Amino acid sequence: MDDLFLKIVDGTIPSKKVLETENVLAFHDIQPAAPVHVLIIPKKYIPSMNAVTEEDLPLIAEIHRVAIEVAKKLGIAESGYRLINNCGPDSGQAVGHLHYHLLGGAKLGALTSISDSHA
After folding, report:
1. From CA 103, how far away is CA 119, in angstroms rounded?
2. Which of 53, 59, 91, 114 is the most interior residue, by most CB within 10 Å?
3. Identified catalytic residue from 28, 37, 64, 99
4. Domains in the chain, ordered, with CATH?
5. What's the whole-model pTM score?
């Protein structure tokens, strides 16, 4: 499978890791849309939120726990951050692997578009 994020998980493509658990990886986006822009992905391949099954719900909860830890680690938990999941082509999801964008580090304006062109 030619999955960009699985290549990051296995180290074929380098990344600047922020936090890693057994099931989840958080790393800095290479084209940040905010002063803090971290991608949070499951290490398991799931194409999008629409493919999440009941069996995957503990993994989704873990992703959210990692998001909270990342926000604390990067000093934006108190000032605020945005957690975004794009699902499907009309949302801007260009990378076919479930992932979240964690954005913060500045007062964020109205949400317009955080596409995967930033991945």
Report:
1. 13
2. 114
3. 99
4. 4-105 (3.30.428.10)
5. 0.90
